[in-house]
Sequence to fold (479 residues):
Amino acid sequence: MKKQIVQEGMLLGGKWQRREETIEVFDPGNGQCVATVPKANAEDMREAIQQAKNGARVAKDLPIHKRQSILMSVASYIEEHKTLFAETIVLESSKTITEARREVGRCIETIRLSAEEARRITGETIPFSQMPGHESRIGYISRCPIGIIAAITPFNDPLNLVAHKVGPAIASGNAVIVKPSSETPLSAIRLAEAFMEAGLPDGILSVITGSGREVGDELITSDDVRFVSFTGGFDTGEAITRKAGVKKMAMELGSNAPTIILSDADLDEAIHSTVSGAFGVAGQNCIGVQRIYVEQSVYYDFTEKFIEVTKRLKVGDKREESTDIGPMISEREARRVKSWIGEACQKGATLHCGGERKGAYLTPAVLTNVGQNEKVVKEEIFGPVVVITPVESLMEATRLANDSCYGLQAGIFTSNLESAFYAIQELEVGGVMVNDSSDVRIDGMPFGGVKRSGLGREGIKYAIDAMTEEKVVSFKLKR
Fold:
């Protein structure tokens, strides 16, 4: 594996810069420092915003074919260097090499989709003559860039979630300032390198590494920043909305996603899908399966086979092709999740397998007999833990699935169309996956939730809509 530069730079207004004060980046698998990045301060962020003001003017006037060309060049660059990108993800995050390669492939798709959607930023005509006295007027609506986008990204998808904010921002003619997770900033830096290699004009993109409280607050509270796109936890998202003031926002704030298994389901398919959906990326996935509600008549058969398949998963070195599950992002997070398991067991839950911790590694845990008010059910655990609960009917399963402050996505396995449509209508979520677990996403679909799962939708077309403003134009003609 290519060794990382000892001290990485951050991209400020198109220029790579370093600082004496740095942040260490660790490999969560072994706890070793793999790189340092600049610890930017509030003054650095103010400079980035000033550069973005200039960059926004340049981006607005950048012809659409030029935006497309840059984005396609970025996608080609990532394709040519996909090994480096995958190794960077493995180095700084929880992902196995297989998961990292998959994320790189999705990032390429995200950037290409952004290039394609740039040509589809269209408006519509307005029939002014619908109102008496306006017969001599004709008009239309155009979409204009909003200006400066703040993009705040998490650790669990350190490359593609950055691309989901930067790609649409560039496609729609905006400037964008990325504040990546301090735990996984290297992938964002690699992506910024791709944009610089593709000829993106200076000032349009900055990647600023530093403390969220210092540089993040400076970014979101600036009156020059017109849109905040945040992916992360609810508490942080709520704090951002309170600090940011009146501006557009998109918030993806996580979930404790449910999947329902009915008695007429293909159990083998349901088990394969839910095991994968529960434990991929060591469970650190906002749409990962956390709660499974199984109809009583197939509950014991499903649970027994689910546990059997779970026990076969290999936890270990992220770089080994045979590894299924890597470490959590930190030992601290692994300790937290283990403590949640312990709390549930103390209150009567049954732990069938897993829950063993070594450093940041935590073996995948399956719990039953868990009360609906326990933390592992009510809150987002963001770790390799699943709770399986028997239900008497689809109605009960839907009621329990909805008994949550979250509502991002849900899954249901059934061969009955009426059952599927009942779930589609009644589940209080942003997406229902039929004969799939909750863990389904393609980069072109609208993605987001209801309740505490967030505001707005990601997905390239939908992000572009949010990152642009409608402008009404009217012509009065002489008759």
Observations:
- The first strand starts at residue 10 and ends at 12.
- The domain at 258-442 is CATH 3.40.309.10 (Aldehyde Dehydrogenase; Chain A, domain 2).
